[in-house]
Input
Amino acid sequence: MKRREFLKSSLVVSTSTLIGTNAFARTLQKAAEPFVFPQPVYRTLGRTGLKISIVSFGAMLTPEAEVLEVAFDHGVNYVDTARRYMGGRNEEIVGKALKGRRNRVYVATKIQPASIKKATIFRDVETSLKALETDYIDVIQLHNLTDNERIFSSEIREALVKLKEQGKVRFFGVTSHTNQVQVLNALMEDKDNFFDTALIGYNFKSGNDLKDAIARAAKKKIGIIAMKTQAGGYETDSMGSISPHRAALKWVLQDTNVAAAIPGMRNMSELKEDIGAMGLKLSYFDKLILKRYSAAISPFYCSFCGRCEPACPCGVEISTINRCVMYAEAYKSMDLSRTTYREIPQEVSARACLDCETCTARCVNGLDIPAKMARARKLLA
Ligand code: SF4
Ligand code: SF4
Output
């Protein structure tokens, strides 16, 4: 081996020993590539008054604290996680990234969807505080609402008020993927204005009914945060090397009724692509990209609207099951897919379709529902 080659190879060995995992090494390598971080842009999160970066951080699939740290060090100041992501480990990763930065980053997490009793809500919050290594949570959210039942639960409200009195949480929020207009309407109808924020699935495929509900909610000072902004982020052949993600994000951010979007950013490439959208306008070419992407994903894209569900005699949770399929196929996260699927009671899971002769549920977008349920069974049963 020539001296230069030897030096090069020994450098690689010693560097990887120092750096540790390959994933971590890739993170640092990507971080070191030239990139001009944009001037951050902030909007007010409804009645909370918090000024948050319009591109904030959805940490759900982020495996390394360093990706979060880079974002926080370049003006991203709101991070969304949940008790149940990565079996609780996601909050730990966020907690690690918050070290030395807690006073300049707002933290949102969620209690478990099944937690409706005081004791379980208190337990969830205590566990989150410990995992996040913090004394308080800025926004605590009820996870995955599909109707208004939990919004008006006095037991839940009493628990949240107690936590606020104890200084453990600052603001209350909800999250929803299904029946979102109904959920937003319930928040607006609430005379107590109890909930301050709503995390809503919203993207260029969303209908005007949701856009209008968001506008009305924002007017009532409910802080709107958008998730699922990239309609799954599917990789499709018809896009070639063009990525639709930044265009999709710009589409959401042009709606000033949205305080912030929280795209999931798994690595430095996704971070750069997403935070690079701050301050940019949706262009003519972005619209062309989204048109092509929309056509490419239409044959399999579910908006989780839930409109097909009332026609199913078994009450199958079609929209949630489709979301599990998306987590597996688009997000490539079997872990998240399985965790979400396990929360669906067996009798309303895709298994119920095995005993059903004719599907009476109809998709407003023309999706083949039995085929989607069969796909879920294949991936997850
Ligand atoms: S096949 Fe269709 S109607 Fe029958 S249980 Fe499944 S989703 Fe419901
Ligand atoms: S399958 Fe169709 S109707 Fe049902 S939730 Fe998805 S998009 Fe809506």
About this structure: The pocket of iron/sulfur cluster (ligand 1) is lined by residues 312, 314, 316, 318, 352-353, 356, 359-361, 369-370, 373 (CB under 6 Å). The two ends are 53 Å apart (CA to CA). The longest strand covers residues 137-145. The beta strands are 42-44, 51-53, 57-58, 78-80, 106-111, 137-145, 169-176, 197-201, 223-227, 260-261.
